């Protein structure tokens, strides 16, 4: 067989053989649906050699109303682009919040970011979210329904949101676990006592 004949056979086999297509892997952060709230859109000007460059900065809070929340910042020449960047950044920096059975915080916590200071206190059922500004938005998207919050110092939107996130990360889940276990033990002993009294009677 000549070299030309072998080449033609090879090309025919390639044409007849079915092509194996490689599936493109799509990177997805999560299938969980998150709620996004834009708390601030600001125009930022930067002095450059040619003059002034105008960009937009968006601050977005992302949460699933079930223990997960995050703050995202996005900068771009267009508002929509800045918001989409902030949402992506917020989803990448999500934190888990330990909640009680009454959808509150396990214990009192204090935190600060820059000139902003914040204090979170647990509240009884039916109290609601007593907070203002960006702090309220962060707590609501975290799934907290009963809480008392107080801001100290600066009223900066971004710093207050970051201080709230920092305070939520400092929460100790073991405190609530101990309370839950003690309640379960109490119920168990109450049942035993009731049975013992019924047998005695």
What does this structure look like?
- By secondary structure, the protein is an alpha+beta fold.
- It has a domain at 35-96: 2-Layer Sandwich (Double Stranded RNA Binding Domain), CATH 3.30.160.
- Helices cover 39% and strands 28% of the residues.
- The protein has 5 helices and 8 strands.
- The chain has helices at residues 3-16, 79-92, 133-141, 157-169, 173-200, and strands at 35-47, 52-63, 68-76, 95-96, 109-113, 116-122, 129-130, 147-153.
- The strands form 2 sheets. The chain has a 4-stranded antiparallel β-sheet with strand order 1-2-3-4.
- β1 (35-47) and β2 (52-63) form a beta hairpin.
- α3 (133-141) crosses α4 (157-169).
- The chain starts with a helix and ends with a helix.
- The model has no long low-confidence stretch (mean pLDDT 82).
Care to give the gist of this entry?
Its main location: plastid. This protein is of the alpha+beta class and about 200 residues long.
């Amino acid at each position: 067989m000549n070299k030309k004949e072998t080449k033609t056979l090879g090309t025919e086999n390639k044409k007849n053989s079915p092509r194996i297509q490689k599936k493109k892997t799509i990177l997805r952060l999560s299938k969980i649906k998150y709620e996004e709230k834009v708390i601030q859109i600001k125009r930022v000007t930067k002095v450059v050699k040619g003059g002034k460059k105008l960009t937009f900065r968006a601050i977005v809070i992302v949460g699933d109303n079930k223990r997960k929340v995050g703050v995202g910042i996005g900068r771009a020449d267009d508002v929509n682009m800045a918001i989409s960047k902030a949402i992506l950044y917020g989803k990448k920096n999500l934190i888990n919040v330990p909640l009680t059975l009454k959808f509150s915080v396990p214990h009192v916590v204090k935190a600060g970011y820059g000139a902003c200071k914040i204090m979170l206190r647990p509240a009884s059922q039916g109290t609601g979210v007593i907070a203002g500004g960006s702090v309220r938005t962060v707590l609501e998207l975290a799934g907290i329904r009963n809480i008392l919050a107080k801001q100290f110092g600066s009223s900066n939107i971004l710093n207050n949101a970051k201080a709230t996130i920092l305070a939520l990360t400092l929460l100790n889940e073991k405190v609530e676990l101990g309370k839950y276990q003690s309640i379960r033990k109490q119920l168990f002993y109450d049942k035993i006592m009731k049975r013992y009294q019924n047998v005695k009677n």
